[in-house]
Every structure is written in C-alpha cells, then in structure tokens.
Amino acid sequence: MIGTVQPKVVVLGGGIAGMSAAHELMERGFQVSVYEWRQIPGGKARSMPVPNSGENGRHDLPGEHGFRFFPKFYKHITDTMKRIPYKSNRHSVYHNLIEGTNLGLAFFDRPMQPFLTEFPQSISGWRTLLKSLFDNNLELSEQDIEHYVSCLWQVLTSCDERRLLDYQRIAWWDFLQAEKQSAQFRKIFTGLTRILVAARAQEANVCTVGTVGATIMLDMVLPGGSADRLLNGPTNDVWLNPWLDHLRAGGVDYHLGAKVEYIHCRQGRIQGVTITENGRTEMVTGDYYIAALPVEVMAGLLNEDLIEADPLLGGLTELAENVEWMNGVQFYLKEDVPIIHGHVIYMDSPWALTSVSQAQFWPNFDLSKYGNGEVKGIISIDVSDWRTPGILYGKPAMECSREEIRAEVWEQLKRSLNQGKTVLSDHMVVTWYLDEDIQFPNPHEAINMEPLLVNHVNTWNLRPNAYTAIPNLFLASDYVRTNTDLATMEGANEAARRAVNCIIQLSDMDVPPCKVWDMYDYPLLSAWRSNDRSRFQKGLPWNGKIIG
Known about the structure:
Helices cover 30% and strands 21% of the residues.
C-alpha cells in the first residue's frame, strides 16, 4: 500500500467517466478527489438551466447538451445507476428510466413511418425477424432488405477476433458495397450511421458501427424490454445531481469550476497536477491519477515528459482529430406535441436530426413552473451533421449564425413532421435553446467546445488501454479501448472500471474488482461464432455456418 492507509486517487474530469471512477473507488475505501472544470457535473451527458429563462420566481427552463438514450445492451452504466439512491433511498436513479415503445423515421415527402422498439413475444428465426423490421413503407426492395440483413448477420456471427482485426480496417460503406446498391438502400441504411453515431458510413469502421447497429436492431426484435430507454426528467435532476450528492456523502472531494492546467511527470511518474480553481492555482497530489478527460483535452495536456515516459500517449494527438459534432437544440412549445412514444430519426434532414418529445416522458415535472409558465412541451433535437449545407441558407451548420441554426433546424423539423398528423407551426414556439458548447467567435463561425470521438477506420491502434507505462497514471474516457468500443457514457463507465481495477491491483487493497461485461454477446449465436473463430484461426473467411 502506497502513502497512506487509504490510497488517494486524483481524478481529472467530472463527466461520466470521472464520476464512475469516483463511485467505484469510493465504494472500495479509497480517498478520492475529482476536479471538473465546469460548474455542472456530468460532462457531455449533462443538462443545464437555460440562463435567465425563469420568470416570476419560476425555474429556468431545462436545456440538454443532447438527449439521453439508454439502449438495451448497456450494462455498465445501468449497473452503476442501480447503486445511486434517489429521493431518500426510496429507489435508485435506475428506476428513472422509461421505455420508449416506438421509433419513427420521418421524411420530407411522406408521413412518418413508425417502428416498434419492443416486441411482445419471442419469435423464432432471427434473420426473418430482422427482415420484418423493414417490412414497412420505406420503398426498399426485397433485395435491399436481404442484402442489409445479410451484412448484419455476418457481423453478428463473426468472432471477436475477426471483428477486431479485420473489421476495424473496413469502412461500413465498403462492407455494405453501398456503391452497388440502390439509391434508397444508401439513403436508409448508410444514413442511419450518420444520424445515430455522428459518423459517415464512408469513414466509420465496421467493427464499431456494424456491431452496434446490428445489436440495436436485434434488441428491437427480441423480448426483454424496449431497445429505447429515456430518463423521466432533465438529466441532472433525475440522475447526475443525485449521483453527485451520493459521491459527496460517501466522502468524495468533488470540485466544480476546477481546470486542469498541467500534468507534472518526472522520472517516469506523475508528481502532481496544477489546478486552477476559483482564481487560485495550486498543485494537487495523490498516490494515483486517473485522467478522465475528453481525448481532445487530454491531447492538449500532453508534454515532453509524459510522452517520454509513455510514447504511446503521443497517438492521442492524431486520435483527437477523429471527432465530429453532435449537439443539442431544444424548442419550448405552447402546446405539447408528443409526435411518437420514442425517438424520431429525420431521414431527409441534411443536418442528420434526431429528436424526442420530452413532456410525455416527464410525468412528475410540471413545466408550468419553468420559464415564463407558458411552456407545455419540449422537442429536444440532436444535430449530428454540421458539415452538410442546409435547406434554407445553403450553408452547413458550423458556418451559420445562431439564429440561422434555429431557423434551419425548425424548418427541417416542420418539413419532416408536417407530412402526417403532427403539425408544427411557428406560433407554437415560446423560446429555444442551443447547447452552450456551440460558441461563436464571430456571428457566422461556430466552434464546438465538446466534440464527439468517432471510431473511424484504423483508429483502434491509436486508442490506449486504461493503463499506461507511467505506473501511477490511468486513463478513463470514451476513447479508451473497451468492450463497448463506442464513444458513449457506457464506454466511459467501462473505461473507468478498467482504470479502477488497475489501481486495485497496484494498491494491494483487499477489495473486489469492478465487474466488466463482455458486450454484444448473444448465447444463441455462440455456435456460429465458435465456428468462425476456428475458421479465422485457420486463415479462412467467414462463411456464416455453424460447422465447417
């Protein structure tokens, strides 16, 4: 054991990864200090009050960096949520998850197409079941559907080794042979990539995008609850603030408004970290350090001493270039427009919009107590493509002014939703909010303070493990190599568990390790995957069979 009876761990960053690491360490008796540069916990998962929107004693309206989505395959973050008490321990924040029962695909030229995201009973024949998802008015041919499902099936039944070593090097576009498919195939099946993970099919790798996409589709048709879960209130109200309270009650020294300035490394070890908090700069020290910072922030903190101690850290500079923008916009309406009981994907939107109508999922939040009292509904939107020209001004979002972004997003919503029963009109809008991470150094140039890592082709080799060659420095962020293999709060939580497990082993603390799950694991597929593993080891290609 190093230093003290209870080793001290300094956690840099108070987003999902930092809070997850602090939680696991706290439960195992470590001293923990967390340093988060924002005044609100949670990082990219946070919600925030819309500044100065509350009137006559009402609360400020709730804004979101982006809406929260908890797929069925999440295991790590939901396990942590079950250990966060909510409202005097009556239940945990996990019970604040509500299942969405539908997914809507919206178009400019026809009514929205709904999909069930939960099936009431088990149905045999998985490939047939997957095909049934697309038996809808999407103008797809039987050949389109068969080809797409065959590609999903190949990913699902390939062994982990093939997915990691082969599919990391192939773009999803090439794997689908998209150039040879119909225009509608390309629109539906490659467009989903851009919208769901802010990645272009031509750039994102098959291992990540194919596996996650196939898993979500499979979760939609298998029993066991909905593939789409949402929170029953603003994120910080029903999850992150109770989490912070729980951490502090357990002894975690959690600092808000504390910016990491410099990581001091000497003789191959971290000696301390310079932090600026409330205008005062000081050196903080501990026995171990966990960097739970976004990749672009960590890359900016690299120095010669760190890279000399661990040359692999130098790859973070290149990895930090593999980011895209995925940020939220909220429209606050005079009347509630539920749209659909779940998320909507806007297939014709050049800005790759997705949305959820929040009020139907927030039964215990009286919106009349927020803003000016007139708000009855909230449409929360994610903008996932900031590079493609829009339909009003012919400019990409990152070249638009704040007001042009508002008008463009609203117009894309109206053109998509007003084809059916939902009707949006300008008079409905009380006010709107753009994620505070979108900043404007000049009126027609946007910058993003928190971009999102995208798993492009051949980026796995740039991604580090949770441990480093520096014996007291560990990494916990969504860019770390994990089973989740996706820049999400699930991946961040898993990375934190891995970092904590490394510290447990080094500290000689007699405490159990954090549980780390295998992901995308379906026992019914084990025979196919076992056969493919045997073939892969013999240098043979995938054949989709159980034997031979």
